[in-house]
Amino acid sequence: MEDRVCGARCTACGKESYPAHAVCPKCGGLEFEAFEVSGEGKVLTYTDVYALPLDYALRYLRLAIVELNGGLRATGQLLDEEPKIGKRVRATIGVVRTSGGRKIHGLQFVPM
Amino acid sequence: MRKVAIIGAGMTRFGRSEATLVDLLSQASLAALGAASLGERRVDAVYVANMGAARLNRQTAVASALVDALQLFPAMAESVENGPASGASAFKNGYQAVASGMADVVLVTGGERMRAVNNLEATDFVASLSHPQAEYIYGVTLPALAGLFTRLYMDRYGVKPEHLARVAIKNHANAAKNPYAHIRQEITMEGILTSPDAVVNNPFIADPLRLYDCCPVSDGAAALVLCPLETAQTLGGPVVRIGGIGQATDTHAVHERPDPTQLSAVRLAAQKAFSMAGLTPKEIDVAELHDAFTILEIAESEEAGFFEKGKGHLALEKGVTALSGKLPINPSGGLKAKGHPVGATGVAQLVELVWQLRGEAGQRQVKGAKTAFACNFGGFGNNVVASVLQREG
Amino acid sequence: MSHEDELEGLLRPPAMDMPPYPPKVITLASGEEMVVRQIDRDEVPTLLKAIAPLIWVERDFYDVVAARLFGELLAYKRYRVRDEYCLVGLIDGVLAGIVNGRAVSPEVGMSYHTLTIRRGLRVGSHLFAAKMEYHIDFLKEQEVLIVAESPIGFRRWMIEYPLDKKYEVQHELGGVPSWTLTKKTYLAAKPRLVAGRRPVSEKLLERAKAIVLPGDELVKAQVLGDKEEAL
Questions:
Q1: B174 contact partners, CB below 8 Å, separation of at least 6
Q2: How far is C108 from chain B (nearest CA, A)?
Q3: Domain-embedded: residue B42
Q4: Is C14 inside any structural domain?
């Protein structure tokens, strides 16, 4: 589903991981169910990337690692004019890259 | 397991080349083989470190191509790909071949012909080592991961832009003494940080990292010749022994690491290498660390055990890691100024250290160097190979 | 008026009143100081000597840029191009780079070429920015039309300023239609991209009075980034 970013919840121990792995990081389990990476959290760190790869015609791109409530972490784009370590943000879904004409959706964090 | 020595080392000038990848690998290999005085001995196995041949140069099975170029058949041969740690991984494989008795003379060579594509393509190619769904799609590049890391590091340990600048200035000064370096231009604090014009000279790449915090995109190759220690001892001249090699891995997505300022794979790999060599970090005379970004030289110097975590920048400030200091780091100029043809780097670090241990490092010579350490940093720290070399006698 | 003067009058373009470019000094990453100043027509022969060997260097489109720049400067010297100017960058008096262009009208400038001789220190970036500074801050134009031969440098300007497309205008250098740098974009980009301090000290100005040429071999080595050892 293109408008959700999903992690994997281990059916044996309930541990939620993002990204998904073939083996549960906590208990070694092999069965998972998908869950949506969403909600609120705080910025752990961020950067403005000026030397961009293919597919971007921007002067720079703001990226962040966010720690969501509950401890799950995610990397995504940060749509905040005044970023700060520790600032509270909310996860949304948006177009994060257009590759070969195809729009790719992913996490975009906005200030609360 | 036999003890293993390095009897030959060579490299091409790093920088911009019109030569093909196999040409570069051949050049470096011939230089190392020439230095090895093999006599009648034949090369049994060839390990080629390379990350980008398939994508950048549209060529695969490079090791087989090299064997043909060098007329080394029927030697065993294969390519080794471990991202930016390909070089040290190939070296590790070469070591294992000799130590196990499977081969008596091994050629280890690493190379990259990165400038066959434009900068956007090269950036994207390196970015392909990041997690495809959780990192790459966001426009994450290696500088982006380094930028995220640097901001956190500065926030937590008080590292300042001046410290990052010092790494670059030191490494540029060292590279000015290295005929093989890509960039042989000295830079100053005024020019890159403190003058009003510095902001234009030194723009952001992935803030807080600036242009002079990031290594260039380079073409080049480096090579080593390995053999059993016993054989090396019969050849005369200073003998360089492989004391220890360690490797460790970590999470793929950087955000999954419990503490993203820790480089646990560096720590573990270094510990294993030291343990195998029976040495401690205090006994190291000279080191080559993987400074693809200036912050990494500081962070790796701590994780490898040379300085306390969070204090590496203080040692740098005091001049401990300068060429004339107590523990010179990156006498070659490091990746920052010597250059970083990705597959070549791990091998080139060891080439520099072999020269240092043999007293052949010219103007960069660290006096009396007897023990050396190298750290080759793959992915963004999720696959690291560390090596300890020692001079006998 | 003599017959020759009359003919010269037919062939020499009228000249707009163009204020001179005030020299400035830039601290480069190496700590060296580069003086950026305008040249007089009588300095053109010296520049032509520096440019000529590069006409045979294919790498990075040096050959096309050098050949065209040679022609433009020669035409400037002989009064056969309207309202052209040329700025040079000098490090300790030694020629590091050349830029040129001309004023099309009081509102519009036309950027010609950027030739870097001393590489690795963003000399080209600094001189290109100095050109834009001349057009907008000193000639008081509203925009500057730009194209380039080399894709590498051009992509950098395109994204860094950024430049806007102005495809309805054919650039004088021929080839592709123009891009433009507007006054608005320039002013926003100025803190990031335009370096240098004024006034330049008497001592530095004295040092930058005569243009010293790097030797032919040095120029080639710089431009080619040192010869690779042939296999």
A1: B323, B330, B331, B332, B333, B334, B337, B364
A2: 26
A3: yes
A4: no
| Domain-located, residue B80 | yes
Task: Check if the beta carbon of residue C206 is closer than 8 Å to that of residue C93.
Answer: no
For residue C106, give its domain range. Answer: 19-222
- State the burial class of residue A74 (Cβ atoms within 10 Å of its Cβ: 0-12, 13-18, 19+): buried
Q: Which residue out of C152, C159, C193 would a mutagenesis test of the A interface target, given it has the greatest number of A Cβ atoms within 10 Å?
A: C159
Structural domain including A91 reads 38-111
Q: Does C127 fall in a domain?
A: yes
- Confidence (pLDDT) at A55: 86
Contact residues, chain C, for A57 at CB < 8 Å:
159
Query: Is residue B354 within 8 Å of B240, Cβ to Cβ?
Result: yes
Structural domains in chain A (count): 2
Per residue in A63-78, pLDDT (tens digit) is 999 999 999 999 999 9
Q: C183 vs C59, which has greater pLDDT?
A: C183
Quote the pLDDT of residue C226. 53
For chain B, give the percent of residues with pLDDT over 90: 97
* Residue A49 to residue B254, Cβ atoms within 8 A: no
Please give the distance of CA B103 from its chain centroid, rounded to a whole number: 25
**B-contacting residues in A 93-112 (Cβ below 8 Å):** 96-97, 104, 106-107
Among C29, C151, C197, the residue with its CB nearest the CB of B201 is C29
For chain B, the C-alpha Rg in angstroms (whole number) is: 19
Q: Quote the pLDDT of residue C224.
A: 66
3-state DSSP assignment of residue B2: coil
- Are residues B372 and B361 in contact, defined by beta-carbon separation less than 8 angstroms? no
Residue ranges for chain B with pLDDT beneath 70: none
Chain A positions touching B260 (Cβ under 8 A) are 44-45, 65
Tell me, yes or no, if C126 comes closer than 8 A to chain B by beta carbon: yes
Residues in chain A closer than 8 A to C160 (CB atoms)? 59
Distance from CA of B343 to the nearest CA of C (A): 19
C161: distance to nearest CA of chain A, Å?
9
> What would the pLDDT profile of C10-40 be if each residue is shown by its tens digit?
888 888 889 999 999 999 999 999 999 999 9
Categorize the per-residue pLDDT at C1 as very low, low, confident or very high, splitting at 50, 70 and 90: low
- Give the gap in angstroms from C-alpha A59 to the nearest C-alpha of chain C: 6
- What is the number of structural domains in chain B? 1
Kindly state whether residues A63 and A94 are assigned to the same domain.
Answer: yes
* pLDDT tens digits, B305-363: 999 999 999 999 999 999 999 999 999 999 999 999 999 999 999 999 999 999 999 99
Residue C159 located in a structural domain: yes
Strand runs (DSSP E) across chain B, as ranges? 4-11, 45-49, 76-80, 106-113, 204-206, 209-210, 219-228, 239-249, 286-288, 371-378, 383-392
Same domain, A87 and A63: yes
| pLDDT tier for residue C214 given thresholds of 50, 70 and 90 | confident
Whole-model pTM: value is 0.94
Greater model confidence, C183 or C171 = C183
C-beta atoms of C231 and B27 within 8 A: yes
pLDDT at residue number C155: 77
DSSP strands (E only) in chain C = 24-27, 33-38, 84-91, 94-103, 108-116, 143-146, 164-170, 177-182
